[in-house]
Write a structure and sequence with these properties.
two-stranded antiparallel ribbon
């Protein structure tokens, strides 16, 4: 009997297909799995010894699905962190007191102040 270690994104049916066997056979070899729809990364799944090794394409697809899931998690976390800041009203600059506004400069004519 061979053993498959579950990675994120795996399903029993995908594992069975990748190893060239049936879902029913995989379920039959794994009485420790109470719910075939619920498996966890790191969990060991028994595979018939006669089953083929997973194809490289299936392994690559599983890896790609894992990368996509991780990227979606990172994006969701970033969005949730940014959301509270977006909900806060933007700070308005304090209005300058009227006395702080400079009066227009006196006109300059030929380098001298006009009188």
């Amino acid at each position: 009997m061979a053993v498959h270690v579950v990675v994120e994104g795996d399903t029993l049916s995908a594992i069975a297909e990748a190893h060239g066997t049936t879902l029913a056979e995989v379920i039959g070899l794994n009485p420790q799995i109470a719910n075939p729809d619920l498996i966890y990364p790191g969990q060991e799944v028994n595979i018939p010894a006669s089953a083929e090794a997973p194809s490289e394409a299936v392994t690559d697809a599983t890896a790609a699905a894992t990368v996509v899931d991780e990227a979606a998690t990172v994006v969701a976390e970033a969005a949730s962190e940014a959301a509270p800041a977006a909900e806060q009203p933007a700070e308005q600059p304090a209005a300058e007191p009227a006395a702080a506004v400079a009066a227009p400069a006196a006109p300059v004519l030929e380098g001298r102040l006009a009188e």
